[in-house]
Amino acid sequence: MVKIQIQLTDGRVMNASLDESAAPVTVDNFLKLIDKSFFNGLIFHRVIPGFMIQGGGMDASLCPKDTKAIKGEFRANGVNNPLKHKVGTLSMARTNVPDSASSQFFICVEDCSFLDGQYAAFGELTDEESIKVAVDISKVKTVSVGYYDDVPYDPIVIKQIVRA
Questions:
Q1: How far apart are CA 91 and CA 55, in angstroms?
Q2: Contact indicator for 25, 70 with CB cutoff of 8 Å
Q3: CA gap 115, 105 in Å, rounded
Q4: Is the pLDDT of residue 123 over 90?
Q5: Angle at 66 between CA 146 and CA 93, to 5 degrees
Q6: What's the predicted TM-score (pTM) here?
Q7: 10 Å Cβ neighbour count for 92?
Q8: What band does 151 get if pLDDT is binned at 50, 70 and 90?
Q9: What was the pLDDT predicted at 66?
Q10: Residues 6+ apart with CB under 8 A from 123
């Protein structure tokens, strides 16, 4: 397990651990992005109460920051990943293409068992305060911007993600 901390510009933090045994390619990719300061200044651009918060791919102007795609480490893609999508789970966002995940990730704010085996879970928030931060983010006022829905009205900006 590798410990990380997601630090927001408003001073809030979310502590997490990443499970290298369940999703080694995903964790390696995520740590390389952390080490390159890739996430600095990006936002949680999609938040849905009772479901999840998603970030790691766009800045506050909704301009995407791209990186290379990796293999999707989940059962439906031929990978035995035992992690469940429960409150606090970190998982990789992707398109309908199984191997399209790159940097965007989401954090479940409720149990989402319907995602098990379909998305690459790779870690979890490690304390109640971190879960509270994620749930609070999921409940902010949202708007639609262009073809993006569920965008926080006031940007939720990632200051940085660091190894803890």
A1: 11
A2: yes
A3: 13
A4: yes
A5: 75
A6: 0.98
A7: 24
A8: very high
A9: 87
A10: 4, 16, 17, 18, 19, 27, 89, 90
Give the other-Cβ count within 10 Å of 10's Cβ. Answer: 10
pLDDT tens digits, 43-70: 999 999 999 999 999 999 999 998 999 9
DSSP string, the chain: -EEEEEEETTS-EEEEEE-TTT-HHHHHHHHHHHHTTTTTT-BEEEEETTTEEEESSB-TT--B---------SGGGT--------TTEEEE---SSTT--SS-EEEESS--GGGTTTS-EEEEE-SHHHHHHHHHHHTS-EEEETTEEEEESS--BEEEEEE-
**Strand pairing category for 52-55 and 121-125:** unpaired
- Predicted confidence band at 80 (pLDDT cuts at 50, 70, 90)? very high
User: CA–CA separation, 8 vs 12, rounded Å?
Assistant: 5
Mean pLDDT over all residues of the chain?
98
CA distance 55 to 34: 14
52, 67 Cβ separation under 8 angstroms = no
Q: In sequence order, what are the beta bridge partners of 48? A: 52
Place of tokens 């949680």: 44
What is the mean predicted confidence (pLDDT) over 1-26?
A: 98
